[in-house]
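okkk here we go again. third time trying to get the zinc ion bound version out, last two times i messed up the smiles copy paste (missing a bracket lol). double checked this time i swear
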Amino acid sequence: MPRDEELIGSYVSREESPEIEMLAQESIGEALSVLFTKKGLFQKTELSFDGMENYLKTIGKTNIDSFKKEFSKRPWVPVTPDLPKDDHMRSEFFCGIADSPLNTPNDEMKLTLPLPPIKMHCSKCKDDHTFSSIGVLWADGFMEYYPKLSEKTEQLFNFSYNCGVCKDNFVGFLVKRDGSKLTLCGRTERLHINVPKGAPKKLRGIVADAIGAANENDISAGFYHLRTFCEHYMKQCIGMPVSEKITGDELGSRYNASLDSRMTSGLPAISTIYESASKLMHERAGGREEFDSLLNDIEGHLSAKKLFEMYATR
Ligand SMILES: [Zn+2]
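finally!!
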């Protein structure tokens, strides 16, 4: 994650600075990057203070709690790294902060940070590319009550990024900051979804819905869609119409009977995945980990099947 000593500007005169500020810059950059590239709407990330704590240990200090408090309160001023120097002040003004006057308490000093480049899917290039920050918008600096400094300072950021390759794909993220917590409140493009390669074309939309639901933390809906995928997939493979009524057990055993005999032991079975997704959905149990593990098993089953089909006639 980028760090920039020059951006910090006015140093707090103490042994820990400016290294501690640069570690905070990195930590905020990391939290934003995770939010932009891995999270769906209304998901959160929190700053990690591990790097700061480790640094403090190396200089024989244990005062991490005071820094947790301090960086949760200081107003943040994210800037586009490519911006000419003279324009940095403009960003500070527009976020309602301007320069911290002399005698500003440490925990009210602005913390300027460079915005990290992020790697994500470009819907125009149809490939993964690096996006760079092209600006940040916030409530303007004319209202003195913004940002609201407190133990959990609140700020609302609107980040804009552009694809580094086509330079023609502007994407935006709306982020609410509460202290050291960040919530993704808006994104111009849905998080890109990679559907497992072996999924049949007609059923890919169901898997995409499952992953989309899980990305927005509706895990039960994710299990529901995975279960639907398993049902439709098994019916498609044995040539049964989707509307035909059959119990899960019966469907599972008819599907299993249609498989290459080498697939019966030790490999993830679609019928078992169907049962697990069903159970988790009805009990409203399980989290992202269980979801990812079922998705992994589906992928495993599909690729094993493809492999055995390839060598079926030899
Ligand atoms: Zn592009």
